[in-house]
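Lab notebook, bench 4. Still working through the backlog of constructs that have no structural model yet. Next entry is a single chain of 287 residues. Request: give me the structure tokens for it.
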Amino acid sequence: MSKTDSAPARKRPTTKRNPPSPDADAVMSLQRSSPVAMHRQLAQHLRDAITTGVYKQGDRIATEQELSQKYAVSRITARQAVIQLVSESLLVRRQGKGTFVTARPVKHDLVELHGFFDELVARGVNPEIQLIEFSKLVAPARVSEKLASDNKQVTYWKRLYCRDGEPFAVAWVYLAPQVVGVTRALAEQHTSYHIIESLRQLKIAHADISIRAQLSDAKTRKLLRMPPGTPLIALERVSYLADNTPIEYALYCAHADSYEYTFRVNSKINAAGALTRRSADHSELFA
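Model written out:
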């Protein structure tokens, strides 16, 4: 079972894509005599431009004013088309920047136990990571219970994850009291699993993981640049040593439209046997 976060968690340079010209997609005449509403026609045209790669992931699309001028429609019609694609998670609005084609969701495989950083890199995402909080403190009640820390001080930090300069996830990490000597410099350069296993020689055997949807608080919304009411997908992880001693608690919250968890479940159902039994049960009804 691979689970060690061996790569350092460090800031990575961001790359910015120049937005395409409003005329990058082919000129199309909307059919005013069509029974299909104009904003739906425009939405379909933009949808086609996204799916065919005219607009690529991360590209900024034309503004509502540019769309209305190009297709000779009202700004209300252009706005309705954009809103439709935002609702389909094909576009995302960024305050003060414009409207962009959404990136494909990050897929996090839960079949094996990996740290967050390692899983992102394995999926081809090289995140920029910023350590925004670090301290030694008494953990909140829920975390203290999970770590069985009995109000002892634990090591805590908070990280922000970005992709192409855009924040998409926040992680809160608490290390049990027996993980000693962790400094801010270590937390800036290494992930929690690497610190625990490679630097402190404590072997992680397994973890309990739960996933839920939740609303963000004001601080998290500000960090992730999210409007109020936007859902988060939250992964809570408690990692244990072989003797079932809890060693790490982590809460990882990401944009619900940019992150998804995957795992494979093997079937143990004997379909043929189940059908045979069901046929036998039904035959008794008509005996």
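Notes after review: The first strand starts at residue 91 and ends at 94. Confidence is low (pLDDT under 50) at residues 4-10, 12-16, 18-27. Flag for follow-up if needed.
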